[in-house]
């Protein structure tokens, strides 16, 4: 996969060797859908995308990892439950918890995998209305100090794509109170709660800020002409944020 | 072949959207006696040979670590069923 423009005339970021030196891994499981879009988003940000396979046993010297959306293992058992035991996940969990604090972003099914792997607290159950919901979604950036959100302003509203059926974030009250008290709620749904998620939570981070998970999809909002409202590129901030983190700009 | 049956239910405090949809549909077929439905999962683990204490312990561990997610679910039953 050396080509980038799959659709339209992608305006690629100017080649910047400093950015291109950042290697962002994108993991593919059986049933992953959005790995190509995540790879594309990484390339549009100027970084080098590295494709990783779930059965790999090495992280290929990547500087950060994205676990993209889809239906890994068909959502069998529970969404993300079987993927969590993939050989590469063990490496990712260890690297995320190590002193090196590998930045890890879980999007949609990737968020579900991170909760199953206990990198993030809580879990996702079926949407309260039971339907698959696909729409443009406004989120408020509640924490802009994480590895994946530092390019946004605190309190900024962004519009990206929401598409899922098991998107209702739940945790016990004690866990929710701790998330709020420690500022670990990264994103909240605006303009109405789309799925019954507790306290309108759309995404969270771990205490160190290197692991972030959210249900909506920033990688589908990175290119003018194809994002929300046909122009939205609000998702690019995720990919620019991790470059800030890796290059020491933030 | 003996089987080990594992039953998993959503924790009581967690709303079960599927169960809610089912209880809403039951009266349409004339089943009016039921005020709530909770939907769970049943796993059947087949064992080639005798179910030893060690194998049963393995089943219990699998039930807690993989077949259920302790954040949202409880293992409510682990039992041996002989054929």
From TrEMBL, chain A:
Biological process (GO) annotations held by this record are: 'de novo' IMP biosynthetic process
Q: Which InterPro entries match?
A: Class_I_gatase-like (IPR029062), PRibForGlyAmidine_synth_PurQ (IPR010075)
Q: In which pathway does it act?
A: Purine metabolism; IMP biosynthesis via de novo pathway; 5-amino-1-(5-phospho-D-ribosyl)imidazole from N(2)-formyl-N(1)-(5-phospho-D-ribosyl)glycinamide: step 1/2
Chief localization class?
cytoplasm
Q: What molecular functions are annotated in GO for this chain?
A: ATP binding; glutaminase activity; phosphoribosylformylglycinamidine synthase activity
Q: Which gene encodes it?
A: purQ
Function as written in the Swiss-Prot or TrEMBL entry = Part of the phosphoribosylformylglycinamidine synthase complex involved in the purines biosynthetic pathway. Catalyzes the ATP-dependent conversion of formylglycinamide ribonucleotide (FGAR) and glutamine to yield formylglycinamidine ribonucleotide (FGAM) and glutamate. The FGAM synthase complex is composed of three subunits. PurQ produces an ammonia molecule by converting glutamine to glutamate. PurL transfers the ammonia molecule to FGAR to form FGAM in an ATP-dependent manner.
PROSITE patterns for the chain = GATASE_TYPE_1 (PS51273)
Q: Share what the entry says about its subunit structure, partners included.
A: Part of the FGAM synthase complex composed of 1 PurL, 1 PurQ and 2 PurS subunits.
- State where the protein is found: Cytoplasm
Instruction: Please give the name of this protein.
Output: Phosphoribosylformylglycinamidine synthase subunit PurQ
Q: Name one Pfam family in it.
A: GATase_5
Q: What is its EC number?
A: 6.3.5.3, 3.5.1.2
Reactions listed under catalytic activity: L-glutamine + H2O = L-glutamate + NH4(+); N(2)-formyl-N(1)-(5-phospho-beta-D-ribosyl)glycinamide + L-glutamine + ATP + H2O = 2-formamido-N(1)-(5-O-phospho-beta-D-ribosyl)acetamidine + L-glutamate + ADP + phosphate + H(+)
Alphabetically sorted, this entry's keywords are: ATP-binding, Cytoplasm, Glutamine amidotransferase, Hydrolase, Ligase, Nucleotide-binding, Purine biosynthesis
UniProtKB/TrEMBL annotation, chain B:
Give the classification, highest ranks.
Bacteria, Bacillati, Actinomycetota, Actinomycetes, Micrococcales
Where is the protein situated, by its record's location annotation? Cytoplasm
The record ties this protein, via Pfam families, to: PurS
Question: What organism does the record attribute this protein to?
Answer: Arthrobacter psychrochitiniphilus
Primary location recorded for the protein, binned into one broad class: cytoplasm
Entry's InterPro entries? PurS, PurS-like_sf
What functional role does this protein have?
Answer: Part of the phosphoribosylformylglycinamidine synthase complex involved in the purines biosynthetic pathway. Catalyzes the ATP-dependent conversion of formylglycinamide ribonucleotide (FGAR) and glutamine to yield formylglycinamidine ribonucleotide (FGAM) and glutamate. The FGAM synthase complex is composed of three subunits. PurQ produces an ammonia molecule by converting glutamine to glutamate. PurL transfers the ammonia molecule to FGAR to form FGAM in an ATP-dependent manner.
Task: Name the chemical reaction catalysed here.
Answer: N(2)-formyl-N(1)-(5-phospho-beta-D-ribosyl)glycinamide + L-glutamine + ATP + H2O = 2-formamido-N(1)-(5-O-phospho-beta-D-ribosyl)acetamidine + L-glutamate + ADP + phosphate + H(+)
| Biological process annotations from GO | 'de novo' IMP biosynthetic process
Q: In which pathway does it act?
A: Purine metabolism; IMP biosynthesis via de novo pathway; 5-amino-1-(5-phospho-D-ribosyl)imidazole from N(2)-formyl-N(1)-(5-phospho-D-ribosyl)glycinamide: step 1/2
Span-the-membrane segments of this chain are none
List the molecular function annotations (GO) for this entry.
ATP binding; phosphoribosylformylglycinamidine synthase activity
**Keywords from the named record:** ATP-binding, Cytoplasm, Ligase, Nucleotide-binding, Purine biosynthesis
**Assembly and oligomerization:** Part of the FGAM synthase complex composed of 1 PurL, 1 PurQ and 2 PurS subunits.
Q: Entry's NCBIfam families? A: phosphoribosylformylglycinamidine synthase subunit PurS (TIGR00302), PRK05974.1 (NF004630)
Q: What is this protein called?
A: Phosphoribosylformylglycinamidine synthase subunit PurS
Q: What is its EC number?
A: 6.3.5.3
Which principal EC class is assigned to this enzyme?
ligase
Family (UniProt): Belongs to the PurS family.
One GO cellular component term noted in the UniProt record for this chain: cytoplasm
């Amino acid at each position: 996969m050396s080509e980038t423009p799959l659709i339209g005339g992608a305006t690629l970021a100017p080649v910047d060797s400093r950015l291109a030196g950042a290697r962002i891994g994108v993991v593919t499981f059986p049933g992953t859908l959005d790995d190509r879009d995540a790879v594309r988003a990484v390339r549009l940000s100027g970084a080098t995308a590295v494709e990783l396979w779930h059965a790999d046993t090495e992280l290929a010297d990547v500087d950060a990892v994205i676990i993209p959306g889809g239906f890994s293992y068909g959502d069998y058992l529970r969404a993300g439950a079987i993927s969590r035991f993939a050989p590469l996940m063990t490496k990712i969990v260890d690297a995320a918890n190590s002193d090196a604090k590998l930045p890890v972003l879980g999007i949609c099914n990737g968020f579900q995998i991170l909760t199953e792997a206990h990198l993030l607290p809580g879990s996702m159950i079926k949407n309260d209305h039971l339907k698959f919901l696909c729409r443009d979604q406004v989120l408020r950036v509640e924490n802009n100090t994480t590895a994946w959100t530092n390019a946004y302003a605190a309190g900024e509203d962004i519009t990206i794509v929401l598409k899922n059926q098991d998107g209702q974030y739940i945790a016990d009250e004690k866990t929710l109170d701790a998330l709020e008290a420690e500022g670990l709620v990264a994103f909240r749904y605006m303009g109405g709660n789309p799925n019954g998620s507790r306290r309108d939570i759309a995404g969270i981070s771990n205490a160190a800020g290197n692991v972030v998970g959210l249900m909506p999809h920033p990688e589908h909002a990175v290119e003018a002409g194809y994002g929300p409202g046909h122009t939205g590129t609000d998702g690019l901030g995720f990919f620019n944020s991790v470059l800030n983190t890796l290059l020491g700009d933030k | 072949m003996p089987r080990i049956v594992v039953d998993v239910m959503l924790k009581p405090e967690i709303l079960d959207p599927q169960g809610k949809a089912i209880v809403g549909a039951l009266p349409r077929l004339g089943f009016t006696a039921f005020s709530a439905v909770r939907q769970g999962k049943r796993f059947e683990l087949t064992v080639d040979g005798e179910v030893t204490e060690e194998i049963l312990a393995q089943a219990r561990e699998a039930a807690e670590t993989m077949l259920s997610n302790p954040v949202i679910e409880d293992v409510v039953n682990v039992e041996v069923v002989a054929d």
